[in-house]
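Can't paste images in this forum, so I'm doing it all in text. The chain is below; anyone willing to post the predicted structure tokens underneath?
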Amino acid sequence: MANEESPLNFIEHIIEEDLSSTHSKDELRFRFPPEPNGYLHIGHASSICLNFGLGESYGAPVNLRFDDTNPAKEEQEFVDAIKKDISWLGYEWDTECYASDYFQQLYDWAVQLIKDGKAYVDSQTSAQIAEQKGTPNTPGTASPYRDRSVSENLELLEKMKNGEFGEGEHVLRAKIDMASPNMLMRDPVMYRVLHKHHHRTGTDWKIFPMYDWTHGESDYIEQVSHSFCTLEFLPHRELYDWFLDQVYDDQKLRPKQREFARRNLSHTVVSKRKLARLVEEGIVTGWDDPRMPTISGLRRRGYTPESIRNFADSIGVGKRENLIDVSHLEFNVREDLNKKAPRVMVVLDPVKLVITNYPEGETEWLEAENNPEDESAGSRKIPFSRELYIEQEDFKEEANRKFFRLTLGKEVRLKNAYIIKGESVVKDAEGNITEIHCTYDPESKSGSGSEASLRKVKGTLHWVSAKDALEVEVRLYDRLFTEPSPDTHKDTDFMEFINPNSLEVITGYAEPGLKDAKPEDKFQFQRLGYFVVDKDSTSDKIVFNRTVPLRDSWAKLA
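Text version of the structure:
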């Protein structure tokens, strides 16, 4: 039974209606059917969460089936990445399946369709086939090969299978209706010749089935009860059902295809072809570049499985496509990391702060809580000394009353440390501030309970001890495109909207405890944002990727 604490979505209503009429609960089986021709992206994540979520809600198995029917574009690398992404999201599949497992059964059925007068070998070129299909407003015309004899069709198909023809010489088409208002029903291609190495079957097969012929029949073989697809497959449903009609045995369960709306994400593209172009043209470093909307890229960016699942749940399942602002995805990762990520202090744009009345050469170890949202997170020790780094933007030599950070003659608190007062500055020949000199109140130590420590000041700054600071590489990632919907401009290539500032690499200075951080460890850099350790880190240099700033910096640009 679906979760009754929240209203059922329309997909769940379909299942509930079927359970009350045509299906028993133990007949429910779902599937997630990726093509292994690229990495999964955030759109796939919504489909994963839908199908596997239904499996969890109804206690039903979910198959992971790779629709591996195009060896020209498919690779084992993509299979491995897809399996890793689904597992990382926290889901387990019941059976790992491949359309290639069914190649012989599909072929045998195709032979039977020829014998039944419902399929034929067409020897036209792809351009000729496209032309004689007609238009949505005009019927198609029959292929001159449509009435080939059964024996000739069987002989040609056998030769196609054995590799006796070149690519494009012949195709197998279903014989349906060249005047159908649904263009997909106008004798669709079922098989084409491809002399390519397949990642699982090698060179055993020289012909490969088309998606429409493979998909529904695979659902039928696996006894999938509900086959959920995105809306672009709605016109395919009629063909899905026609193909099933040719093989269906009423002693078995018949799969049902239903469609839901794709959720597009702003400031990115989710076409695998376009994502591949970003990789091939070197705009990004690979499929897992942290600017990519792939699940691998989001993981490397510092997103958590929970944040992606929460995002998918929050946008729900709909019947109309819409554009979801990426800020909604960012909100979900902030919400999740706020509860989990340890707080640390890192300075990204440093200026030296000298506490002139603090003893030279002395180091004091101060206590700092790891996460105020998690009492069990404990605390850590951080070194404090006479010379510190603070952010340049946290000091102004002259400031108005609305500036609550450090300025001359005013007090602020150093996080987990003392109250300081700006006294003077040191400048270079160009007039740039190279040092800020201040004094501290020794009685104002945070957490000491002294009267001075309880004194209220309006600003609190993060800092690191200069002599103890750990130098780190910090990659400041931003949105990959400047335009919310970069691939919907008819006259402009989506590449024209690439954000030239989507990556800035800088050197930061971190508290020394971060030297032991490992790849995928996540932190909140206090007052700056959420960051994750990148896999490029070495024993000599830790690399951090910015997941998101603490606040949405794009909101004020809207």
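The longest helix spans residues 42-58. The two ends are 43 Å apart (CA to CA).
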